Amino acid sequence: MQRVAMAACAAFLSCAALVPPSAGQTLNLAVGAPVTSLDPHYHALSPNYAVADMLFDSLTSFDARARVVPRLAASWRPVAEDVWEFRLRPGVTFHNGNAFTAEDVAFTIARVPTVPNSPSSYGIYTRAVRRVEVVDPLTVRLHTNGPYPLLPTDLAQVEMLDSETHANPLTEEFNSGKIAIGTGPFRLVSHRNGDRIEYARNDAYFGERPHWARVIYRMITNDAARTAALLSGDVDFIDQVPTSDIAKLRGDSRVQLSEVDGLRLIYLALDHSREAASPFALGEDGRPLPRNPLKDARVRRALSLAIDRGAIAERVMEGAATPAAQLLPAGGFGSIPGLVAQRGDPDGARRLLAEAGYPNGFRLTLHGPNDRYMNDARIIQAIGQMWTRAGVRTSVGAQPWATFVGRAGRQELSAMLAGWGTSSGEASSPLRSLLATYNAARGFGGSNRGRYSNPEMDAAMEAALRTLDDERREALLREATRIAMEDVGIIPIHIQRNIWAMRRGLRHEARADELTRAQDVQPAELAQR
């Protein structure tokens, strides 16, 4: 069963020749998005996964181009339509010296869907597993609920725990560092929530030994401060390069950029959960409306039509984004050929609103984070202005991510901006996470914060998840995508381009999944050997 892997072309500026730093050197990183937890199964969020991926390992992994590659599993194969067998690498140990075995795989898969109060569960990646069979210490068979071709892909998101160390683990114990123990290339030294994480190299790592003896992983959510930290030499490497600084950094001989077309969709989610009044959708007089206008597909289409995605990509994102009309970039597995973003049409949006019974529009508040995605607060502001021009008088509520994600997860909002990184490169990921009818027990809709539900879309998506034939599976994913996009289950805005910056003398492998990890950075001379 071959998968269509998404190709991503990384572009690096030439590196100045330097004497390689000693193997004891420290790498100082600064990232733009806050990390909310060190528990690798608590919150399915790219910044969390990136820091966990330095401490822990998964059975499989994604390379920089989103292809599935071996990690803790040396190999895998289907031994029946509903059974996958994984052979584990011998000699792998956790940071505390405990051996990694098949029992740890069974323990981890059982733990993932049970983490309490998860804002976005990793259960979507284990939902297909019906039973775990430990064959021997280095062999495990995963029995699925029917044919399931995506299991090796899903397990790239599931970091393995130690069944002894992590018996009855609490998320707070990971965050304190007490049980933040994995098999990964680095060990945890300290964690100051929302500020920094310090790592030390794991000299017993089974894979390629990291160059850096020590890593300081700082969270600097202010764009200007992050760039200033790089230019002053306070840090060596930053992610989420502010679009307003790209030209300046390209012309600075002290630094270089690392770039790749990304897999992150920036989109709007709308309140589908309420038939009656939605909390931030109000009448012209500011009073609650008798019914939720966002339940009407004509209103949702009007809101989508009012957005000039090209203007956002060029003026707000300064060219570091591609306007989107669906879930994946062109060529992604399950993307619809030829489906491209429409030009903004405020007059057409007004006509749709009038047809839906809102000739004078209504009031709406658009919420979103101001410290999570590239230019997120500016995007919210731009969309608010576009909606207002189309007759929906819009206020904006940009908040710190930690505040916003809690409110969104409790369905307190009416319209919200968010993002989804499809690390697998295929449409099943956003379909089952963002658009599938919410069902915690089945692991569907974990990030469906608007509670969109469409049985026709669900049926096509679930059929795709059971289909082994790639051609047929892609056709079903396209059908599910078509249904969701025509129904405006969410409103796609654009696909981000991933851009990092670093001091000269370093080399970085740019990843389509936008993860920022110390193991992907090394001195330029070492990279050229």
UniProtKB/TrEMBL annotation:
This is ABC transporter substrate-binding protein. The keyword Transport applies. One of its GO terms (biological process) is peptide transport. PANTHER family: OLIGOPEPTIDE-BINDING PROTEIN APPA (PTHR30290:SF9), PERIPLASMIC BINDING COMPONENT OF ABC TRANSPORTER (PTHR30290). Belongs to the bacterial solute-binding protein 5 family. Residues 1-19 form the signal peptide. GO terms for molecular function: peptide transmembrane transporter activity. InterPro entries: Peptide/Ni-bd, SBP_5, SBP_5_dom. CDD domains: PBP2_NikA_DppA_OppA_like_2. Residues 68-439 form the Solute-binding protein family domain. GO terms for cellular component: ATP-binding cassette (ABC) transporter complex; outer membrane-bounded periplasmic space. Pfam families: SBP_bac_5. Keywords: Signal, Transport. It is found in: Periplasm. The keyword Manganese does not apply.
